[in-house]
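**Discrete fold encoding**
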Amino acid sequence: MSRADIGRIVESERLNARLGWVLIAFVAVVAAANLFEGDLLGAGFAASVVALVSFPSIAFGSPRAMLPWEVLAVVALPMIGRTIAPPVVAEVATYLGVAAIALVIAVELHLFTTVEMSYRFAVVFVVITTIATAGIWAVARWVSDLTLGTGFLVSEDALMWEFVASTVAGIGAGIVFEWYVRRRLDPARFAGGVE
């Protein structure tokens, strides 16, 4: 994947930028609301998302330099999931969001550093990052349970299903990412439904 190819993912189209900034504003409002409600974890996650997805605009010096709004919508899923969805759906949405953040990091590493990733490596990076995030989150909850007496980890069975959900979300996001990027970079390949 060349820098020119991946650079096409960071778009400068007006509609894409407007939709992207609306999504970023939504996530910023969620961060502020979470902070106001005392949910520091939710506020920190949302604020980190805002900083991460705003980076291309800052780096390129243009508010129109934006990742595709579809990617930003997937990154915003955890915030939507936490507010309106049942807990099981919110959990899966969270790992889809983590997978989307891993995608954003892969694209930004590719664009702004000397790191170059192939499509397949980017997919594996997303899957492994999503699973690793689930593992780190499980360890953090375990430490909290031990040291603060919280009850975050209810059962090992639920924890294992959480790992399964994060793995499925990572694999799904990786496959969609590869399909989306290849289609976006070579639309002639997909003309008329023929690959």
